[in-house]
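Protein chain data
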Amino acid sequence: MKLEQGHAAIVTGGASGLGHASVVALAEAGFKVAIFDINTDESPAKADAIGGTFHHVDITDEQSVVDGFEAARAAHGQERVTVHCAMTSKRGKTIGWDKEAGRYKKLPTEDYAFGAEGVLVSSFRIASHSALGMANSEPVTADGERGAIILTASVAAQDGQIGQVIYGSCKSGVNGLVLPMARDLMDLGIRVNSIMPGIFATPLMLGMKDRNPQMWDQLNASVPFPKRLGHPEEFASLVLEIVRNGYINGHQFRLDGAIRMPPK
């Protein structure tokens, strides 16, 4: 898709980390960007800074998502790019030791369902609502492209570690959405891809730098090359290339400095 001035984009989780880097990159490329986030403290200012809009959207709530898309389209028109970075999940081993009870306990099914909603179901929710809007709009390229949807998976989708049975399997499910959804939407000219980031220097990870500098150094050293955590801007750079290159479709990209996660 040619990055033309004035096209609209939506980024979930756009107030921080990978999402915010994507917001900035898309805005610099000429897109009118709408930030979907639950963070109401910093999001409005960050949206103002890039000439975009902020919409309080809970990705686990259907009506909240519907309202967010309606508001974003009223402000900017039909989005041609959607980048889904927001998520929520829980941790826990399938079977773990309960110290108080002195016996093993299983991961509550409710915890798994919470993660499935916050990672996998929300990815389908955002992608499908965006695809519907794109489908009912005119193509924007000679190939008949109507838009591009980029989901965020994780290296945990392939290298799920101990305690990541929820996160790893649900992120694997996000990758599993890509090809069948891309084929569902092929006649409509809508592309679907995912990115699997490795360990990135998001605000959550940067907090470790001061709290546990030894662990921070170990994390950096664990990346084969370059020996550092990824920069959010590098994630955003891949987002832009996926948007630009209309032949990229139905693919899952690892972006990880060649890291392969150990069991723990």
